[in-house]
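// run 5 | inverse folding | seed 20
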């Protein structure tokens, strides 16, 4: 059956409109690509819209975030002072240049004076020098305790998230028992078991308290990775299980754990100060530490509150800096909370 002339004319005009639209689209794409014809390779690209990694995207937001910048500035100043503190301290933290001014009845604590802007303590030692040197000990305790808890949490979390089954159940029940005990009480109990209090017992006690936090967080991240497409593809290709765990699952699960480590570092500093305040820290005051200084000041806090105020302010400000930085990192790396 031969189509009518009207139908052929309508079909030809429709074909002509389609061809005209195709030519218009080709010329527009050619102009957008600098006068060249759009190829198949360029079809999926967006002009000026190159992709960004998660870290680059997070840093782009963090550098405009005043909360993160404030926390990073506080943390940077604290780390620098902790490193160079012993060299810029006006006096040796063990020396007693104000001992001649200590009068047990009338003047047990020398006040601020020229050369001693914060005064001295009850045995004539310069308070400013002890604060500067004590920052290093506080940083050492906080960092080592956090690293210890991170290592233990990574071990338990990897076992639970990678193996699963009865291993997962056993590890999580242990973690639940540890989480059911308040952190400071558990740390005090562990530190009290030691034959004699020391800085090492404080680090171990705080590290043990932090282990279940990292273990539960890593286990949840690894369970999410087990159902991801790239892990399923690796299994389908016959990749060995240990290679899947350590090359695919574990590296992609460390982001939330690293962010949590910055928050735990602030908690570790506070808990270390609490243990030292309770007399479970390093008893040797020749190595000053902020929590230790806070505990030694309790005998004079009513008449000379500055002995406790200065180390307490240092602890609060440093913990605030790590907390602000950690919360900002969590917000920047978490797609659900991005602003």
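// decoded
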């Amino acid at each position: 059956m031969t189509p009518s002339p009207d139908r052929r004319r309508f079909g030809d005009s429709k074909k002509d409109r389609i061809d005209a639209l195709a030519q218009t689209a080709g010329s527009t794409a050619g102009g957008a690509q600098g006068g060249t014809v759009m190829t198949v390779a360029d079809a999926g690209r967006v002009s000026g819209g190159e992709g960004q990694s998660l870290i680059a995207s997070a840093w782009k937001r963090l550098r405009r975030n005043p909360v993160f910048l404030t926390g990073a500035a506080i943390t940077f100043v604290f780390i620098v002072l902790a490193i160079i503190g012993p060299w810029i301290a006006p006096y040796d933290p063990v020396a007693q240049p104000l001992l001649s001014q200590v009068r047990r009845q009338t003047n047990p604590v020398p006040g601020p004076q020229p050369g001693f802007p914060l005064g001295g303590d009850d045995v004539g030692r310069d308070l400013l020098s002890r604060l500067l040197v004590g920052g290093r000990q506080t940083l050492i305790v906080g960092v080592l305790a956090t690293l210890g808890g991170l290592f233990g949490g990574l071990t338990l979390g990897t076992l639970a998230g990678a193996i699963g089954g009865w291993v997962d159940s056993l590890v999580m029940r242990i973690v639940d028992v540890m989480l059911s005990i308040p952190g400071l009480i558990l740390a005090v109990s562990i530190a009290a078991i030691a034959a004699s209090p020391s800085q090492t017992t404080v680090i171990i006690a705080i590290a043990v308290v932090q282990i279940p936090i990292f273990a539960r967080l890593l286990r949840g991240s690894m369970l999410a990775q087990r159902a991801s497409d790239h892990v399923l593809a690796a299994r389908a290709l016959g990749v060995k299980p240990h290679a899947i765990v350590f090359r695919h699952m574990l590296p992609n699960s460390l982001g939330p754990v690293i962010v949590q480590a910055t928050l735990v570092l602030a908690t570790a500093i506070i808990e270390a100060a609490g243990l030292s305040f309770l007399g479970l820290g390093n008893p040797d005051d020749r190595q000053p530490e902020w929590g230790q200084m806070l505990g030694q000041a309790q005998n004079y806090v009513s008449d000379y509150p500055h002995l406790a105020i200065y180390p307490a302010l240092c602890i609060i400000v440093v913990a605030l800096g790590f907390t602000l930085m950690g919360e900002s990192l969590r917000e920047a790396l978490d797609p659900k909370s991005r602003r």
